[in-house]
Specification:
single chain, alpha/beta, six-stranded mixed sheet, about 45% helix, globular
């Protein structure tokens, strides 16, 4: 499938347009042009070779590889990579789009206010943070918390794919429009992706898309719809026990 063009639309447009800026990945960096071309270079045969190499890594080697990754321009502006956290045999895998400022500082996904809300969402369906595995599509923070770019996501996706292969989740929860669109390779707005059980990959892993916790902090009226999505997740997880 082709890479979707991410267009702000639907329920999240007001919040995302106010909080995201389309700043260059290396704005102000002295080697911006050279480093920017590096991301574009990892296509075709090079991308296939990288994906094949990553596909042979175990958890520890994968984490170490991500920690030292320089395959896209974002490495020049990060504080540290954000690999993922949680049980490595969890039934539920939660996937967001990219680290924010606090995640970049701490090296852990979904910390700070959005992470606290995610923890509360999990408790509402009788799960703890330590019961699940949490990761992002990107392992480095985009400057100014702008949207991930398709070439950045393409470069980083082999790491996420390998995490999924090692984890073998029974259920996937995608948080936010961008995560849902990327995983499903869809251009549909989040309002049309959420509220149902979709299938991910050749194995058809059940996947539910819901609103990002950061969006819910600004738009609490959407929490009712999110609760419906969480109930779907709860039922799917319980069906595998």
């Amino acid at each position: 499938m082709g890479i979707p063009v991410w267009v702000m639309r639907g329920d999240e447009i007001a919040v995302e347009s106010a909080t995201r800026r389309d700043a260059g990945p290396l704005e102000g960096h002295p080697n911006a042009d050279a480093l920017g071309s590096q991301t574009r270079a990892y296509t075709g045969e090079a991308a296939a070779q990288n994906a094949a190499a990553v596909g042979a890594l175990d958890w520890e080697t994968l984490a170490e590889t991500v920690r030292g990754c320089t395959r896209c321009a974002l490495h020049a502006t990060r504080t540290q990579t954000v690999f993922g956290v949680g049980r490595r045999n969890a039934e539920l895998m939660i996937i967001g789009e990219a680290p924010g400022a606090e995640e970049d500082r701490q090296g852990e996904p979904f910390v700070g206010p959005a992470g606290q809300l995610l923890n509360a969402m999990l408790r509402a369906i009788n799960l703890r943070r330590e019961d699940v595995y949490i990761a992002n599509i990107l392992k480095c923070r985009p400057p100014h918390n702008r949207d991930p770019r398709p070439e950045e996501a393409s470069t980083c996706t082999p790491y996420l794919n390998r995490q999924m292969e090692l984890l073998r989740p029974r259920v996937i929860l995608a948080l936010g429009r961008i995560a849902g669109q990327w995983l499903l390779q869809s251009e549909l707005p989040i309002g049309r992706l959420r509220g149902q059980v979709l299938k991910y990959g050749d194995a058809g892993v059940p996947l539910v898309v819901t609103y990002h916790p950061a969006y819910l902090l600004r738009s609490p009226l959407a929490k009712g719809k999110t609760w419906q999505d969480l109930c779907l997740v709860r039922d799917l997880v319980e069906s595998h026990r």
